[in-house]
Structures are given as C-alpha cells and as structure tokens.
Amino acid sequence: MPAQEPEDPGLDAGVLQDANATTNMFMPTALTPPGGTFGLHSYELFFVGASFSPTDRLLLSITSLVPLVSGQGFYGLLSAKYQVVRSSNLKVALHGTTSILGGDADFTAGLVGGVATLCLNYDCTTHASGYAGVGLAANDQSSFPIAFSGGLVVRMSRALRLLVELDSALIAGEINDVANGGLLWYGVRFASPSISGDVGFVRPFSTDDDWDTEVFPIGLPVVSITFRSGD
Questions:
Q1: pLDDT tens for each residue of the chain, 231 residues long
Q2: Closest among 44, 101, 56 to 81, alpha carbons compared
Q3: CB atoms inside a 10 Å sphere around CB 182
Q4: Nearest Cα to 49, choosing from 231, 226, 229?
Q5: Maximum CA pair distance of the chain?
Q6: pTM for the complete prediction?
Q7: What letters, b where the CB count within 10 A reaches 16 and e where it falls short, cover 190-203?
Q8: Residue 20 CA, distance from chain mean position
Q9: Residue 14 burial by CB count (10 A; 0-12/13-18/19+): exposed, middle or buried?
Q10: Considering only Cβ atoms within 10 Å of each terminal Cβ, which end of the chain, N or C, has fewer?
Q11: Would residue 15 be called left, alpha or beta, if left means φ above 0 and alpha means ψ between -120 and 50 degrees?
C-alpha cells in the first residue's frame, strides 16, 4: 500500500491573527498570508509598499522610497517568497529580492536565499526564524556578500508580541571576511488580522570596540505599519 503524503496543516492562527506575520522586524519569516489577500506597508514613513498573495504559499511585494527632494532618482525593492515546506511545526520558504536604483546612479542588485521558521507553540504565534541569502550584482563580481539573520517572535497576549532580531554578514570568494558586528533589533508588535504595528529600536553593534555603546546606547527608533485585506 503506497504511503500517503502528509496532510497540509493549512495556515496557522499566528498568521491569521497577525497582518505582519510574514516579517520579523526586518528579516522575512517563512510564513505566508492567506491566498487572495493584499497588503499595504509603511516602514519608517519613508518607505511604502504593497503586496499580493496569489496563493497561500506565494507572496509578491514592491517597496519604494518616498520622494524627499527634487530630482531624486527612483529606489525600489521587488521581492517574492514561496513556501516550499509547511508542516505543523516547520515552515521553509525561498526568498528573492531585487534592488533597483534609478536616476544618475543606475544600479541593480539582488539577494537570493531561504528562510526557515520553527513554531514554538501549537498555533505558531510564538516562533523562531533563521535566514541566509547571497547577494548578486548586475556587474561582474568575484566575491559574494552573504547576509544572515535570526529572529524571535514571542506572543504575550492575542494582540501583543515581543520581537528580537540579529542581522550580520560575511563576504566569500576572492575576498573572504566576516563582519565585525551587525544590527540588533528589538521591540513590540501590536497585532491584529487587518492591521499590525511595530515599535522598537535598531542598534548597530561591534565586536571590536565600544563605539556603538557610546553613539547608539539604545539604538535608533523603528516604526512600521502593515495593513492586510480580508481573504
């Protein structure tokens, strides 16, 4: 008798209760929204974006820098995330981002990688994620930047989450080097099925000296808002 494929567990309550479950504070998670929904995003008021989920495993999004000065060139991000593994506890997704800088400094670069999210409770309202991605440029390159991140979302109540994230990088290829620091993000999320807002700080840190503690004692403030339509 042939073995049966495991049944798709469907979307977790953690996704349905949080309009921004697809993101930690900056890094992506492996969670995806319900199919047929779209989202609107504002990050630090200077970046705005929109997203659409054709299915409950695929998320497409675009983000752009709001014009601030006359003659400012276009800067935008196009990204896609496809969930390839969905079990009751583990989600894995492929993720790609293309950065486009227009105007006088015409430049295109991308980041291709993957992210895994481990649900730490039955409804995935508390989860940990790990991400790794390789940077690719339009021009010739002999070394490749590799970005990696780790994040944790902890449910405190139906509407409140605690957030923490750590981002860093290394370079591999003709030049090999590891960043002597990174970015530490921390804050809270006020979550609901249609609107979620993050309030927190991002703090650069260095493993070589203590300049970061003198210049950024608690970090720079971070505010983002996400709206998601009903499915």
A1: 454 445 677 889 999 999 999 999 999 999 999 999 999 999 988 899 999 999 999 999 999 988 766 666 667 889 999 999 999 999 999 999 998 776 555 567 789 999 999 999 999 999 999 999 998 876 666 678 899 999 999 999 999 999 999 999 988 766 556 667 899 999 999 999 999 999 999 999 877 766 666 667 899 999 999 999 986
A2: 56
A3: 19
A4: 226
A5: 69
A6: 0.88
A7: ebebeebbbebebb
A8: 10
A9: buried
A10: N
A11: alpha
CA dist 150 and 186 (Å) reads: 12
Place of tokens 């309550």: 13
**Tokens read off for 220:** 């720079």
Q: How far is CA 209 from CA 61, 201, 212, 214, 229, in A?
A: 38, 21, 8, 10, 46
Structure tokens at 32: 């995806």
